Automatic annotation (TrEMBL):
Any one GO MF annotation of this record: DNA binding
Residue intervals of the HTH cro/C1-type domain: 9-63
Keywords, in A-Z order: DNA-binding
Protein source organism: Pseudobutyrivibrio xylanivorans DSM 14809
Keyword DNA-binding (UniProt): yes
PROSITE patterns attached to this UniProt entry: HTH_CROC1
Descriptive protein name: DNA-binding transcriptional regulator, XRE-family HTH domain
């Protein structure tokens, strides 16, 4: 992962107004483990990344995509598909027509 992985994990936690102790409790790890992740001394396992993303209210794709630039394209595609699937069918049709117009220019 890129150098500021821990910083981004910390930023998510702070944006949610959570302490290291609260996150540690939710993930069933020690506060020291969370501190080590945030300070770049260790990386989260896939299992913990899944739980962390859920705790932060985002998809794993969105979390990994924001942490790892090489994965960003897949994360953006997934996030777009999730948002589009929530739209009514007529709005999806309008969006598709708009996208086709943009791609032709």
């Amino acid at each position: 992962m890129q150098e500021n992985y821990g910083d981004k994990i910390k930023a998510y936690r702070l944006n949610m107004g959570l302490t290291q102790n609260q996150v540690a409790s939710e993930l069933k790890v020690t506060p020291g483990y969370i501190s080590n992740v945030e300070n770049g001394r260790t990386a989260m396992s896939l299992r913990l990344l899944i739980y962390y993303a859920k705790l932060m209210g985002i998809s794993l794709d969105a979390l990994v995509g924001k942490l790892e630039p090489d994965y960003k394209q897949n994360a953006i595609n997934r996030e777009l598909l999730e948002e589009i699937s929530k739209m009514p069918l007529d709005a999806q049709d309008k969006l598709l027509k708009t996208l086709k117009l943009w791609n032709n220019n």
